[in-house]
Amino acid sequence: MSLPHAILTALLEKPSSGLELTRRFDKSIGYFWSATHQQIYRELGRLEESGLIRELPSEVPVRGQKKEYEVLPAGGAELARWVAESQDPKPMRDPLLLRIRAAGVVGPQGLGPELRRHLELHRRQLAQYEAIEEKDFPPGRDAVEDRLRRLVLHGGIALETFWLHWLEEALGEVEDMSGPQA
Questions:
Q1: Residue 18 Cα distances to 21, 40, 49, 78, 154, angstroms
Q2: For residue 177, what pLDDT band results from cuts at 50, 70 and 90?
Q3: What is the Cα–Cα distance from 61 to 68, expressed in whole angstroms?
C-alpha cells in the first residue's frame, strides 16, 4: 500500500491540492512511483476519511475552488510507522525480460529494434535524472531531507546505468545471433 504513503510524503513536504499533487507526482515522485489523477483523488478521499489528512480551511469559500490538504498528526505517525516497517523486495516483472526468454524458444528475430528502443528510453531517463541532480542538488545542499532525496535519485541513476549496460549486452548478443538488423 505505497500510494497513500507517497501522498502523505508529498503533503508533508508541502500542503497541496489534488491537481498540484498530480503535477508533483509527474515531476518527482512519479520517477519511482506513478499514479494517475484519478488514483490520487480517490486516495485523498480515503486518507481524509481515515483522519490522516484534512482539507485546509479556505479564507473565502468559492464554488469550484480547489481543495488543499495537509497531513494531520495521525498521518505523520502513520508515515513514520510505515517508514520503519520491514518489507521484502518486490519480484521483478518486466515484459521485456519475458520477451527475451520467449525469444529463446521462438528465436530472436525482430527483438533488436525493441532492445534499441528500450536503450534509447533508458538513455533519456538517465539524462533526465542527471539534469535533476545538477539543478536540484548543487554542492553544499546537505540537509537531511536533501541527502535522502539525493539518495533516491542516485538509486534511479544506478538503475538506469544498470539497464543501459545490460541492454547493450543484450543487443550485442541478439545482433551476434541474427545480424545487426535483428
A1: 5, 7, 15, 20, 28
A2: confident
A3: 12
Give CA–CA dist 36/13, Å, rounded.
Answer: 20
Query: Are the C-beta atoms of residues 58 and 48 closer than 8 Å to each other?
Result: no
**Percent of the chain at pLDDT exceeding 90:** 59
Specify whether the CB–CB gap between 33 and 3 falls below 8 A.
yes
Q: From CA 50, how far away is CA 169, in angstroms rounded?
A: 49
CB atoms within 10 A of CB 151: 9
Q: How many Å apart are CA 22 and CA 48, to the nearest integer?
A: 17
Contacts from 18-27 at CB under 8 Å and sequence distance 24+?
18/44, 18/66, 18/67, 18/69, 19/66, 20/66, 20/68
Q: Residue 29 gets which letter from DSSP?
A: G
Q: Where are the alpha helices (DSSP H) in 15-143?
A: 18-27, 37-49, 73-84, 95-106, 111-136
Least confident of 18-32, 54-68, 168-182: 54-68
